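Figure S7 source data.
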Amino acid sequence: MIPVSQVIVGDEEQRGVLEVLRSGHLAQGEKVAQLEDAFATAHSAAHAIAVSNGTVALTAALRVLGIGPGDEVITTAFSFNATLNAILETGATARFADVGEDFTVDPDAMAALVNRRTAALLPVHLYGLPADMVAITALASRHALAIVEDAAQAHGARCEGRSVGTFGIGAFSLYGTKNITCGEGGIVTTDDDDLARTLRILRNQGMRARYDYEMSGYNWRLTDLQAAVAIPQVNRLKEITAARNANAARLTAALIGTPGLLLPMVPAGRSHVWHQYTVCVLPDAEINREEFCARLTRVGIGHGIYYPKLMHDYPCYKANPRVVPDPTPRARRLTAQVVSLPVHPGLDPVALDQVVDAVKEAIRG
Ligand SMILES: Cc1ncc(COP(=O)(O)O)c(C=O)c1O
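Tokens for the predicted pyridoxal-5'-phosphate complex:
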């Protein structure tokens, strides 16, 4: 079985965890501070604030901007539901723009939804590919809108040379399948000193210092145990990304021109970090996506469908007036076509060739 994702941790992570265990201080402390420094440096951000998970990172980013009831946040329809849940958590209303050919949100579609209630744009750097942040930043500044970047899947990705998470406030995830992981965890990035200070207070019950409350807050803290696992991976981020890039390049070189398959594209000026390598099984393929996936399963090739529905298509959101079911036909089509293939750094050339052979075989009628 070749898994679609794999956790790769080594001696350094083990040593770090043991050090924390032996120190007797397991909660947020020195290791979290080290993680924040390393993460901020890796993304050329002035501040990185560690929190308990990526969903909290998104919620915190929206909260610190003062987004709440009456505000609209424009995002993509094609993402993991944490993106939507975080917007709803603040009391704001979610609007959905369609995506482009690259799977990320289309800035023109976002522009068409801007109105006097719009408070923020929330692009998702899906599968590790930055959204078109040049156009999105221009749109935000035309209308004085905030930007929150869902960078849960895009550690170290860049748009025109600039790291994701620095165009607005960035929200990253350190969940078990992500390019950097400590099981559960999140990071908020910002260049704004005041926002960073407020985020640190918000995550710690609203305290400036012990029992000195400035506002009502939360327990959004990460632990030193988790930070010890994440730090070595942040330090290895360039290597991790290079390995994912090399694997993606090998898949593309071998699969290009395969009838019935559309391969992922990388628009000029953007660097992909290949959290997922996602192909589309096209309508003119000789078999449908479900059969394609069943064939991959039979020969032990892990894969995933991210995502089988639009975020707002689930019944639990249908009656919610803060979830506006804007039409997004391209995103809807993609939910029926996408399949993500293994691309993680644990794959050697032999395993990648097995993936390629299985895909070529499976797509045949
Ligand atoms: C696009 C996207 N946004 C948000 C999240 C939420 O992150 P977490 O699972 O760490 O809460 C995830 C990951 O799970 C994600 O893939």
